[in-house]
Write a structure and sequence with these properties.
mainly beta; Jelly Rolls; eight-stranded mixed sheet; 1 helix
Amino acid sequence: MNEKVNLAAKLACFDETWSPKVVGELNGQYVKVVKFVGEYVWHQHETEDELFLVLKGAMQLHLRDRVVDLREGEFFIVEHGVEHKPVAKTMCHALLFEPATTRNTGEVEHEYTIEAEDLEHI
């Protein structure tokens, strides 16, 4: 049986940045929460779209042709094949929604890379 999920409580469970945690799953999709500050690595997902919803703070999604500013309560969907780089000047808490098989750095090898099967479920 499913239980309700309190996102603030889940985010309070960890301090690591750039390390998404799975908090739910539906129809082959993961619902993840993540904390981050600074710049991520440029990457893309060949077949998966990715939703970024800002829960606390603000962030920018750098795309090759523009920058999308997101504040609390706003989301943006990065379509598959689009190169992007999340950036946050101060600590940002976000919800990610994407297929469960999505590798966080796409085909890029980086210190932030976490294989989908190695994601922590909290």
